[in-house]
Amino acid sequence: MGNKFRSLVFAALLPCLNTWAQDPQLSQFYAAPMYLNPALTGNTQQDRLGMNYRLQWPGVGPGFRTYALSYDHREDRFHSGFGAMLMRDQAGSFNLAFTQAALSYSYEARINRRKAIRIGVRAGYSMRSFDPSGLVFADQVIRDNAPTSVEPQHLSDISYWDFSGGLLYFTEQYWGGFSLNHLNEPEQSFYVEGNAPLAVRLSAHAGYRFALDKRSFKHSETKMTIAAHYKAQEKWDQLDIGAYVEHNPVTFGLWYRGIPGLKAYKPGYPNDDAVILMLGYRTENEIRFVYSYDVTVSKLTLKSGGSHEISLVYEWAKAKNRRYRAVPCPKF
Questions:
Q1: Cα 163 from chain centroid (whole Å)
Q2: Which tens digits make up the pLDDT trace of 177-207?
Q3: Domains parsed from the chain with CATH numbers
Q4: How far apart are CA 92 and CA 182, in angstroms?
Q5: pTM
Q6: How far apart are CA 328 and CA 30, in angstroms?
């Protein structure tokens, strides 16, 4: 009876999920640059292929699973970056899913030899779906667990266009930028005549890199990066803040997510989410593998199972254009 009860509750709450739905989040936001900010499309001297996987709260049912695949290319002749990204997020027992295919473009304008500004745009086509086969409605229970419901079905999968834009200012050692997602506030309701526009999401990020050894930053073998990422969507917001150390070929870091003491979701529920542990390795042929684990510090406690995240990024060299000297851009 437990599964039927969960199905009945899900059917009753499904309309509310349209309003509460929020975007997928990644602890390793620096490993998914185009999702963080379209201005970061092509922010490398090389071509780049990236893959991301996140399993959040496996202790709470099946948990939330996020997959991402991306490719971007820097074209020096046009001071531009071009990229494509595919993302899927799946939650709950009834395959409540979000899938998006997107194209990104960025343009870099140099202020001088050491400073530059990048602007970027992203256009995506999104689909939201769910599996109604496991749902049990009240009339089925009343009619001695009837196999089908007599309730009219007004729910259906939906799809929509989604547009985003971003700006980034950077040097070799520090950067700051922001992106605005869902600029067109697309309708995301599962109801044919629903009214649940997807709210604009702000993402603001900044960081600073410096040498830990006595060498100059350019020739240093051990660097530290301090970074912060603030996300806000309607009444919901969070702050990721932390640091990681790069000592080739190993990277390790520590992060915190939340805004404790300054904001609470409601009385007794502080904005306090997780402590994030990170470990990465880079091979000689520029393949970077990073694993992170979110230690839950909210009231969900470790019973949530925490969150596991894996990123795999491969960069490969291409022919250089000697007539154009790009401003070094920080790696995330």
A1: 16
A2: 999 999 999 998 877 777 889 999 999 999 9
A3: 2-316 (2.40.160.40)
A4: 24
A5: 0.84
A6: 16
